[in-house]
């Protein structure tokens, strides 16, 4: 296990310093590798760097028998490929046991989006009668206005918002992008920043744009609970997550004539293929409308 712990530390350093992976990706990959390490030890198998294709196959079969979803198994395979490719590249192992592993076959599901009416209903839920109401309205408006990821949202500092100009500066993976804000989002943010946030922050030096009831930076879990609360309050049957608003932002822009390259830039996608999924969503919606409305469909 000493060898495994050392290998895991080096893998963590590689992901963080060389691959520049996000904190969420690092946490996910490290969890996968620790679970494999524990399985190998419990079953008296070779350690991580001595394991072969046979041992990896046995472990993946164990995950499938345990009821893990194809998506979970595929993510684990991606982790294994990354881990062993790295140690093979630096000469720590003479063969890459994960080279021939194939991802699980999965039915591609289009991301769920909200209709424009559902978005309006959700955004109307926060009642601006107390500090939390003003904050929650500003957060939801900003998320739908920009399509940023929830991690990017909670990482925002006060200086990242230029209210007079109506733009947001977003940082992700050492890259910066500027995203415009619609007037209602600017208004909601201005009210929160000017009149509410100063009374919520724990210390005057706090830089976080959005803070929790303790006056410190909002967490992912905290914002997830906020979204779920307003989903229930709005009585929207769809399973809404913070990412649902990101998907809805992109699909609605595309529906209303925005081009894919502009949407790609605002979302911060490095590859256009990641953005093209929203074109499939819009096409499917048009087809659904046609099948429901055309008298001969």
Secondary structure layout plus pairing:
Blueprint lengths: L1 H17 L4 H20 L10 H13 L4 H20 L26 H8 L7 H16 L3 H6 L5 E2 L4 E6 L2 E6 L2 H18 L19 H15 L7 H14 L4 H8 L4 H4 L1 H17 L4
Antiparallel strand pairs: 1-2, 2-3
Helix pairs in contact: 1-2, 2-4, 6-8, 6-10, 10-13
Which properties best describe this structure?
single chain, DNA polymerase, domain 1, mainly alpha, three-stranded antiparallel beta sheet, 297 residues
Walk me through the structure.
- 59% of the residues lie in helices and 5% in strands.
- The protein has 13 helices and three strands.
- It has a three-stranded antiparallel β-sheet with strand order 1-2-3.
- A hairpin with a 4-residue loop joins strand 1 (161-162) and strand 2.
- The model has no long low-confidence stretch (mean pLDDT 87).
- The protein is mainly α.
């Amino acid at each position: 296990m000493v060898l495994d712990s050392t290998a895991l530390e080096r893998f963590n350093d590689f992901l963080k310093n060389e691959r520049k992976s996000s904190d969420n990706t690092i946490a996910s990959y490290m969890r996968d590798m620790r679970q494999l390490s524990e399985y190998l030890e419990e079953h008296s198998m070779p350690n991580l760097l001595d394991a072969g294709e046979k041992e990896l196959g046995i472990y993946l079969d164990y995950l499938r028998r345990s009821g893990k979803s194809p998506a979970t198994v595929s993510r684990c395979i991606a982790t294994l490929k990354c881990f062993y490719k790295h140690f093979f590249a630096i000469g720590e192992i003479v063969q890459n046991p994960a080279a021939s592993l194939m991802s699980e076959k999965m039915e591609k599901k289009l991301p769920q989006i909200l209709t424009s009416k559902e978005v309006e209903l959700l955004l109307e839920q926060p009642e601006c009668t107390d500090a939390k109401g003003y904050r929650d309205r500003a957060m939801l408006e900003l998320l739908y206005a920009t399509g940023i990821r929830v991690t990017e949202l909670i990482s925002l500092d006060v200086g990242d918002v230029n209210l007079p100009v109506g733009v947001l500066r977003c940082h992700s993976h050492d890259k910066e992008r500027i995203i415009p804000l619609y007037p209602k989002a600017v208004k909601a943010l201005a009210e929160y920043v000017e009149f509410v946030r100063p009374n919520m922050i724990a210390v005057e030096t706090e830089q976080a744009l959005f803070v929790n009831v303790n006056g410190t930076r909002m967490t992912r879990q905290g914002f997830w609970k906020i979204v779920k609360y307003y989903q229930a309050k709005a009585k929207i049957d769809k399973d809404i997550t913070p990412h649902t608003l990101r998907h809805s932002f992109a699909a609605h822009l595309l529906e209303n004539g925005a081009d894919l390259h502009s949407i790609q830039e605002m979302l911060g996608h490095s590859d256009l293929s990641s953005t093209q999924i929203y074109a499939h969503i819009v096409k499917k919606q048009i087809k659904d409308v046609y099948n429901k409305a055309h008298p001969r469909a």
